[in-house]
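FAQ

Q: What does a record look like?
A: Structure on top, sequence underneath. For example:
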């Protein structure tokens, strides 16, 4: 594959850029989408949105005036291990000296050392699957750790690829469900075109979501022989896709929408020697405008897809672009390290079980503890009315300043963020989780939500838990408990002629004290509450917060609150 191109750099140390024009079908033959999914945690792209693909396809194919255009560049990278297979040739056919390429564009030819798979050479699809797998056997077996299989990894023996599986990638919306219900009410036995399409998309997605180990297992045991033609084709496409050396960083929907409707040319920018850190940086920055990246996905990319080395190399640039890198790191500690929220955050990654929206948890729960850092790297803390009506607004660092090292408050905040905060965050939520464990706080991942996360499929127990396990409610509960605890602690220290900022408190003692306050809010407070719309209404949030503080302060019992006119 060869393209006439120009090569240049925008800055002295910028990644090399190679720009050329090519049709989507040509790019699709050697480049794939590095989707971030549970079977590919290093991926950086969001899953395809079928509706968006349809929009773009109609944009081009239904344009009677033939004037529609999409001039924005398609951005590509190359898998680092295959960058040796890309050659840039000067006009005389010799290899271009990349060190000489600066801001002035250099005419060149980009040669892609990759041979696309030709399906038309195979009459038997089973044979094609076998041959494709042989071409990439080592890759799948190494990536899947065949000899060290995770015992918790789902087995294929239970037919998890059943045809009625709906993956997060093709989630059926409430509107879709209403439409299907209407069809059932009319006793319409024919499968609608839209319904059929959803089933097909779900079926294909179930194959796309296979882990490398599962792909290897399917191919080694030839389980695909019993599959439907549609599933076999999906596996064939998966195997073909995983061979490709190119990476579609931006423009996947345009490629997918136009690859089969004619040779529509696009302007292509290739970063032939960029590492994963640079590619992730470009994906994030390019998508902060226009069709904005889901911020839960963004947290997952920054927190999981980038190695510490790659993140260190791009951290400053991400911060300057408005990404809260330090706070994202704090959120990933909550997601990955032992604490009551481990694994609970939803990072917008298909196949992962988390259900608490990462962005909401970051802003409403985690930031109060960790604070943040501005673009210059200076530490800052989020404040709240910890001791209402007496001393104004406090930060968490203020309340635990004696536990932090440093010659002044600024240094102590740095120490708080680097080493201290997470211990106190953990024991605080342990006290809450232990108090509600019998009814409202799930003990295993399987207890959180239905596998499809669909509200309509919740059990009564899961529905109860949703009264507590949502970021807004958890954030209000957190502030109520800390407010009451801070007032209690301040009063006791003042009686002993001590200052709250100068007296140390151990994590164990803090947990014990929080435990006494959380017992004042019974399970029934959450299960019997009828108020809704907390996320949208400041009024309902204020009511809920006021009720919680009444309880934690000991001003009222739950029975008294239920008699309050505001409760109903």
């Amino acid at each position: 594959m060869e393209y006439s191109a120009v090569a240049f750099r925008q800055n002295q140390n910028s990644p090399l850029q190679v720009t050329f024009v090519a049709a989507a079908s040509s790019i699709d033959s050697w480049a794939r989408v590095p989707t971030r999914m549970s079977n590919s945690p290093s991926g950086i792209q969001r899953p395809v949105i079928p509706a968006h693909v349809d929009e773009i396809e109609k944009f081009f194919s239904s344009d009677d005036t033939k004037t529609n255009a999409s001039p924005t560049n398609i951005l590509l990278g190359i898998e680092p291990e295959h960058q040796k297979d890309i050659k840039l040739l000067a006009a005389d056919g010799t290899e271009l000296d990349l060190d000489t390429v600066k801001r002035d564009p250099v005419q060149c030819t980009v040669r892609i050392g990759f041979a696309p798979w030709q399906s038309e050479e195979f009459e038997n699809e089973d044979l094609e699957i076998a041959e494709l797998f042989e071409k990439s056997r080592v890759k799948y077996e190494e990536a899947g750790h065949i000899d060290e299989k995770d015992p918790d990894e789902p087995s294929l023996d239970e037919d998890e690829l059943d045809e009625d599986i709906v993956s997060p990638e093709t989630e059926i919306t409430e509107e879709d469900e209403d439409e299907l219900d209407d069809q059932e009410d009319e006793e319409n036995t024919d499968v609608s075109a839209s319904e059929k399409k959803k089933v097909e998309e779900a079926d294909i997605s179930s194959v796309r979501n296979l882990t490398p180990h599962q792909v290897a297992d399917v191919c080694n045991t030839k389980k695909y022989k019993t599959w439907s033609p549609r599933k076999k084709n999906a596996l064939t496409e998966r195997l073909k896709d995983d061979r490709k050396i190119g990476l579609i960083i931006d423009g996947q929907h345009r490629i997918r929408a136009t690859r089969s409707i004619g040779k529509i040319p696009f302007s292509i920018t290739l970063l032939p020697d960029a590492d994963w850190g640079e590619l992730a940086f470009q994906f994030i920055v390019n998508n902060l405008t226009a069709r904005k990246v889901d911020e839960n996905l963004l947290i997952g990319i920054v927190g999981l897809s980038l190695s510490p080395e790659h993140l260190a190399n791009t951290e400053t640039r991400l911060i300057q672009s408005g990404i809260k890198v330090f706070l994202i790191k704090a959120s990933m500690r909550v997601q990955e390290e032992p604490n009551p929220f481990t694994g609970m955050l939803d990072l917008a990654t298909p196949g992962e079980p988390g259900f608490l929206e990462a962005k909401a948890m970051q802003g409403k729960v985690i930031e109060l503890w960790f604070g943040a850092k501005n673009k210059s790297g200076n530490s800052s803390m989020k404040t709240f009315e910890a001791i209402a009506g007496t001393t104004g607004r406090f930060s968490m660092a203020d309340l635990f300043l004696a536990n932090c090292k440093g010659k002044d408050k600024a240094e102590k905040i740095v120490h708080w963020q680097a080493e201290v905060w997470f211990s106190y965050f953990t024991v605080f939520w342990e006290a809450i989780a232990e108090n509600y464990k019998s009814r409202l706080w799930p003990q295993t991942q399987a207890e959180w939500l239905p596998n499809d996360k669909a509200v309509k499929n919740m059990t009564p127990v899961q529905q109860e838990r949703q009264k507590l396990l949502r970021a807004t409610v958890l954030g209000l509960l957190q502030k109520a408990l800390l407010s009451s605890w801070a007032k209690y602690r301040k009063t006791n220290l003042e009686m002993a002629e001590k200052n709250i900022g100068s007296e140390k408190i151990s994590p164990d003692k803090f947990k014990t004290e929080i435990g006494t306050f959380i017992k004042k809010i019974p399970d029934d407070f959450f299960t019997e509450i009828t108020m809704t719309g907390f996320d949208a209404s400041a009024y309902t949030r204020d009511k809920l917060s006021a009720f919680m503080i009444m309880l934690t302060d000991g001003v009222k019992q739950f029975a008294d609150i239920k008699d309050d006119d505001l409760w109903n």
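Q: Is there anything notable about this one?
A: Residues 121-243 form one domain.
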